[in-house]
Write a structure and sequence with these properties.
The protein is of the alpha+beta class. It is built from 17 helices and 23 strands. Helix 2 packs antiparallel against helix 3 and helix 5 packs antiparallel against helix 9. The structure holds ligand 86X. GO terms for molecular function: ATP binding; proline-tRNA ligase activity.
Length: about 525
Amino acid sequence: MASVDVKKCNDNTKSGEKSKANAKSGEKSKSNAKSGGKKEVKKETGLGLSNRKDENFGEWYSEVVVSGEMIEYYDISGCYILRPWTMTIWEIMQAFFDAEIKKMKIKNCYFPLFVSPGVLQREKDHIEGFAPEVAWVTKSGESDLEVPIAIRPTSETVMYPYYSKWIRGHRDLPLKLNQWCNVVRWEFSHPTPFIRSREFLWQEGHTAFATQSEADEEVLEILELYRRIYEEYLAIPVVKGKKSELEKFAGGLYTTSVEAFIPNTGRGIQGATSHCLGQNFAKMFEINFENVKGEKAMVWQNSWAYSTRTIGVMVMVHGDDKGLVLPPKVASVQVIVIPVPYKDADMQAIFDACSATVNTLNEAGFRVEADLRDNYSPGWKYSHWEMKGVPLRIEIGPKDLANSQVRAVRRDNSAKVDIPMVNLVKQVKDMLTNIQQSLFDAAKLKRDACIDVVKTWDEFIEALGQKKMILAPWCDEEEVEKDVKARTKGEMGAAKTLCSPFDQPELPEGTICFASGKPAKKWTYWGRSY
Ligand code: 86X
């Protein structure tokens, strides 16, 4: 694996060098044609993707995250460099979520990265299945540590001993903490940037309440924030629902999630989870308090998280054959302004118009930059910023200058509009809003077209073969879910439950389970998944 990654890294460096070396000739060839010129520039500069999204999705994805300058491969398999183009997206989502949880009186904190073996194993049942994924530090310099130290894969065992210490009486409740941090899970299945990496960034919220009803309420409040991150920021439709007993977090009482779907691979993907832990951890970590009546009671706990995986889902859902497509709300550059010089044009006037456009839009609150580099042709710049997914491109040439207008080109559908300078702010605002909505609508249409409602096993197998996300009536029995997994095992991976949507269609009396023939209890989404 490592050698493949390094090779990709090298290949990328090479094409980067090539594009710089050829930039000048790109400029020259620009002057000769409007029509065929662009293709020629692409070829010469090495811009453009060599894999198509619909033909070779996996390769397309690896290529687009690197060429879009979000990720750089690293020499440790499953670890990736998050470049500024990625971090800005993460910071925007972080700012939203952080402000929202502060409104809920949740406070930020930071617990150590390292876990002592005693603490890690304190809660055996929880750790058991995960043990092979825990990474350990065993040496400092040349000497073995007396006691090896684990790196947190999640922070329950790190935090809860202190919850036990800090919570004494009902006045200490609720205790609502969150931390933004990295975690390490030494996974052995195929790593994919953002989607499955050995180190990733997330927030983990851990809260404790006096009553179950307070905990229940918070679970859904947080889940709604996760829905909003996906739908309002990343423009990705998700299904809110409850995980099956088999798929829930084993240490908890119940797990809720937002589930997204990747049409190209026909796989569901868990977008974020919000768990009610019940009193299981309170029991193990002795998190007790004296209630209002003066009796000893156990706290009710929740935990919830979303990670940088969100960004991978965004790339997979919106990206196209020209590269990334960023929803305006999370794009670090929402508008890129590009001067279009012609022979004998007043270059200074064009540059001034570009700067004025950037300033006007920045002052209006948009994230705007101009690409005034003189060693790249306009065509090269178009491809470059398309690859990086910038939602809107503004071109300014002599004709635009003469007409006091700019030309705006949408990344999502290539639509071109001439905008009079006097309407600039209003029209750019409308276009960005429109792009954000269009991306969501297009993604939802595509996702919905992948949903099949089935009633029988034969229909289920047929739909699974067509890479669908399947809504089926189910008896809700663990044995039946295990049986479905066993019966669908194959190269592509088995089908499992994604979630039972909160929004349940009507289940007519007498409906039977698609897999067992027993009475159905609920509608559940099934599919292959990440
Ligand atoms: C499950 C559960 C939970 C806090 C969340 O989903 C929200 C934020 N944590 C995480 N999980 C593990 O408990 C786990 C434990 C170990 Cl030791 C491990 F190596 C991997 C794990 N992966 C997931």
